[in-house]
Amino acid sequence: MSAAGARTAPALGLKIGLVAGEHSGDTLGAALIEALRARVPDVRCFGVAGPKMVAAGCEAWAGAEELAVMGLTEVLTHLPRLLRLRATLATRFIAARPDVFVGIDSPEFNLRLARRIKDAGIRSVQYVSPQVWAWRQGRVRTIGRSSDLVLCLLPFETDFYARHGVAAEFVGHPLADQIPLVADRDAARRALGLDAQARYIALLPGSRLGEVSRLAAPFAAAAAHIAAARTGYRFLAPMASPGVRELFAQEIARVPGVPQIQLLDGQAQQVLAAADGVLVASGTATLETLLTGRPMVVAYRVSGSTAFLLRTVGLVKVPYFSQPNLLAGRRVVPEFFQEAVQGEALGAALLAELEDPQHVDELVSEFTQIHQLLRRGGADRAAQAILALAGRTPGSPS
């Protein structure tokens, strides 16, 4: 029987290979597995997985945290390890012959892996488009060679792929389905044991140790600026992992005048719902903040050499880097890059956001419109597209 025939034979069951990087990829992967299992209860999932994916039933060959490397030059330090891991995974996936291989985010790692797997006759999906429309647009050729289908979380991405002849589908963002259209601040505060009447600012410095090491001190300095300028604000910081918590605590302890910052293990979405305003690292957390309807200031810091390349080689093709501004098509939230990420500037910008009630109302209204646009049953649509690629009739959840 041909490989294609084997993929469509129900008696063999359904096998899905997955590689997810970091906390956000783990969240997406877990929702996808649950959506697949609702239609194919005996589906077997295996690959690189985080704890949420493992809880959803994925067999973990390696942990998602192994791919948590940020920046262009930072990758070089980890390159030998990542190359060994990718070679090992390629061998294992080709031997296991999943019906479909799904690379979740982490494009620098996943696309080259997908190319080897696709060349071996296995269908390949890239779930979460790289920001190829924003920088290094020439990568679209690599994406087309590596993937049979790109599943896009953002609505404007499919037009870019259509212009380049790459199959892509907008499935919406699962976070938009998971987060309610109106976040219940009072309920979140009760769940966290917080004062119902206090004013809270959430600090989200990221999930990767590299970005936390660069953002912890300016975030703490921003808290110090706010506490000195206005009385009554309290500060919360949900930590993505024990390692992040330890590093963040070490870094903020060195900042003069830092106010008390309550550290929490996980619970980022509840913290966002409980907060009045947010200081957040660029990335998926900015989208979570948007979907929760909270004013924010966004910060992005990379190594000096990476910043130099981004600025001087002409790689960047868009005027913004934060997801709220990209989705709105204009500047709706303040964003600070590299040396502009300073405590006083961040703190002053967040206070300016919070102390303009009309602006906050307009912001929440625009965020709600974006939320509704992204709320399309993302994990369910992704599962249907993957099943169709595998030659299965998507059907309805069991």
Word description of this protein:
This protein has about 400 residues and is α/β, with parallel strands linked by helices. It has two domains: about 5-170 and about 375-390, Rossmann fold (3-Layer(aba) Sandwich); about 180-375, Glycogen Phosphorylase B (Rossmann fold), CATH 3.40.50. Helix content is about 50%, strand content about 15%. It contains 18 helices and 13 strands. It has helices spanning about 5-10, 20-40, 50-55, 75-95, 105-120, 140-145, 155-165, 175-180, 185-190, 210-230, 240-250, 270-275, 285-290, 305-310, 325-330, 345-355, 355-375, 380-390; strands at about 15-20, 45-50, 60-65, 100-105, 125, 150, 170, 200-205, 235-240, 260-265, 275-280, 295-300, 335. A seven-stranded parallel sheet has the order 3-2-1-4-5-6-7, sandwiched between helices. The protein has a six-stranded parallel sheet with strand order 10-9-8-11-12-13, with helices on both faces. β2, α3 (about 50-55) and β3 form a beta-alpha-beta unit. α2 crosses α18, α5 (about 105-120) crosses α6 (about 140-145) and α9 packs across α12 (about 270-275). The chain is globular and about 60 Å long.
